Amino acid sequence: MKSSVLRYRALAILLSSILLIAPSMGAEDQPPPAELNTFAQQTAKAYGLDAKDVLATLAQAHYRQSTVDAMARPAEAVKLWKEYRPIFVTAKRIAAGRAFLEANRKQLMQVQADTGVPAELIVAIIGVETGYGGNTGSYRVLDALYTLAFWYPRSGDPLKAQHEDERQAFFRDQLAQLFALAKEQHFTITALTGSYAGAMGWGQFMPSSYRQFAKDGDGDGHIDLFGGSMPDLFASVANYFVANGWQKGEPVTVRAIHDPATTAFAPDDFTPKYTLAQLAEKGYRPHVSLGPEVAGSTRNGSLLSLDGPQGTEDWIVFQNFYAITRYNRSPMYAMAVYQLAQAIADKEPIATP
Description:
The structure is a single chain. The chain is an alpha+beta fold. It has helices at residues 36-47, 51-58, 65-71, 75-78, 81-88, 91-103, 105-115, 119-130, 141-150, 161-185, 207-213, 230-243, 276-281, 292-295, 319-327, 331-344; strands spanning 139-140, 193-194, 253-258, 274-275, 284-286, 300-308, 311-317. It has a five-stranded antiparallel beta sheet with strand order 4-6-7-3-5. The chain is globular.
């Protein structure tokens, strides 16, 4: 049995009047938001819960200024690739990843065989997210999502207002789905801990991702991503990629050579919608050392340019790179995961011109 699994207990004692229930005030707490009762009613209706129970749990939620501060300055937004990569692709993390893969080889290779997702990529995700389970986050998930659902940080820039509205709506939905997840997996909401953004477990799944992508790898009827079941963890990370279009045996990315006679190309996103012939017309070709099977391929890709230590790095990225960006939308995150995975597997880490 999974001793680390958080079991669902009775919710807080119901109060007689919904309007009287408000989050308890701590040293840094904000007054409860005016939308709290409406949120509770909507959540209860959407997921078959009692609004009084939802409010009773929210009464134990706290505003966290540290969550707002962390969200306002993510590493991807303030660091260049040459600064970002050394945080995650280190000799220590590579060695720990190899040891983790070896310790769990049988289970990882079974998931790889079942899904087509490389074992080293599953390991790299866990390594980047939590240091192979060593740091799963100390924020209460309830507090993090409560804070971002109602006090998402605002820049004051009118051009960013729509994006900030969308992000707040996203976290409000995650808070609602946290209640659904607790119901389905019998978790105690107030005991769950994770990142400042509300991600949890060794793979750092948001509540919606936990509900949508997590898999019962050991067949015990419960999905534990908190370290109590490696089969659940590995199957869930792999399924995240499969559900987002992972293609077995296909490349993730290849280094590109840019013809200096052409204008630099910056696509709107990393959806693989350009043929290699189209990218070549724009001045970008796969490095020849990667072989004719790639250079002559008809597969689609996109282009990613990064500020590396030796200057601009150009990469042609394919569907499998796009699948990694569904785990975290940052292209630098996806590249760091890929390069860590390559190093863990002792494969050619970087193909350079």
